[in-house]
Write a structure and sequence with these properties.
single chain, alpha/beta, six-stranded mixed beta sheet, 12 strands, binds NADP nicotinamide-adenine-dinucleotide phosphate
């Protein structure tokens, strides 16, 4: 740990509610120390009625920036001066940069999703894909798929189908795409959609620690050897859903790379410095495996 702080040590905050399970303080403080940036990163549990006050504090106290997590990724937007093009289309911000009193909002989750999928671009581009979920991270997933992979068909499956419909209408308008279908998450009916998709992405919380025995589906026919199956969840590193897909021969990806990539992009926006990604990934995996025991 850094052994001394000075009057010019700067501060980056994380705001959300609840916040105590976040790995971002571990990742960002490790990167700040390793790169010798005189700055600390602290998590603040902000209740909804204090969101506006917390933004005023960023300006009054001169914080370098913020990470923003649930439930504020959308509601923070009205307090910001400018948004990146990505954040504006996605409709959610997870990173704020304070540039001499002007607040700029970014969505670096999209970068994490892109970096996770880019090695498989040839297999994914122009094919049928399925996204399970319709929350904030599903929005970043859909933006990234439409922007960089141009799927021939995009199927959104969600527990609340009406939310999937809202996403479909929103992205049809903003990104001029009309090959969407939406479905209610109901495994017996979803097999056909899943098995005909070259890429399946879980953007729900199903299977996340501590509920590690939960999975979106336990129907083996949903998967095949040609598929890529990506779960945004990073704890556990391989969810039950991914285990089942892997048993059927699919190529599986967990959320760890996305977690580190989005953090690295935020880190470079605040500090203009590259995060030591490989070193931090190793440290974080060790930390999570010890904590989960
Ligand atoms: P969110 O906005 O709260 O959305 C949650 C989604 O999960 C919704 O689609 C919701 O369906 C669905 N859901 C929740 N409980 C369910 C249940 N019991 N049965 C069926 N569906 C359920 O959350 P988010 O921010 O998008 O996060 C989603 C996941 O992505 C989380 O596991 C999070 O850890 C992960 N994530 C990972 C990274 C990373 O860096 N790897 C970054 C961001 C998020 P309804 O619409 O029906 O409520």
């Amino acid at each position: 740990m850094k052994d001394s702080f000075f009057s010019n040590t700067e501060l980056i905050g994380l705001i959300g509610h609840p916040i105590k399970h976040s790995y971002s303080p571990f990742i960002q403080n490790y990167a700040l120390q390793t790169k010798g940036v005189d700055c600390i990163y602290l998590a603040f549990d902000v209740v909804p009625e204090n969101l506006k006050n917390s933004i005023n504090s960023v300006l009054a106290l001169g914080l370098r920036g913020l990470n923003v997590t649930l439930p504020y990724k959308e509601s923070i937007i009205k307090f910001l001066d400018e948004l990146s093009e990505e954040a504006s289309i996605i409709g959610a911000v997870n990173t704020v940069v304070n540039d001499h009193g002007k607040l700029f909002g970014y969505n670096t989750d999209a970068n994490g999703i892109l970096e996770s999928l880019l090695p498989f671009k040839d297999k994914i581009a122009g094919t049928k894909v399925a996204v399970i979920g319709a929350g904030g991270s599903a929005r970043a997933v859909i933006y990234t798929l439409l922007r960089h992979f141009k799927p021939s068909e995009l199927n959104i499956i969600n527990r609340t189908q009406q939310k999937a419909d809202t996403l479909m209408n929103d992205f049809s308008r903003k990104m001029r795409y009309d090959s969407f279908h939406t479905y209610e998450l109901f495994p017996p009916d979803n097999v056909e959609v899943l098995k005909n998709s070259s890429l399946i992405i879980n953007a729900t919380t199903i299977g996340m620690f501590p509920d590690v025995e939960d999975a979106i589906t336990d129907i083996e026919e949903s998967f095949n050897e040609e598929q890529i199956v990506f779960d945004l969840i990073y704890n556990p590193t391989k969810t039950k859903f991914l285990q089942l897909a892997e048993e059927q021969g699919a190529k599986v990806l967990g959320g760890m790379k996305m977690l580190i990539s989005q953090a690295a992009k935020s880190f470079s926006l605040w500090t203009d410095t590259e995060m030591p990604v490989a070193e931090i990934t190793k440290k974080l995996e060790d930390y999570i495996s010890k904590k989960s025991k």
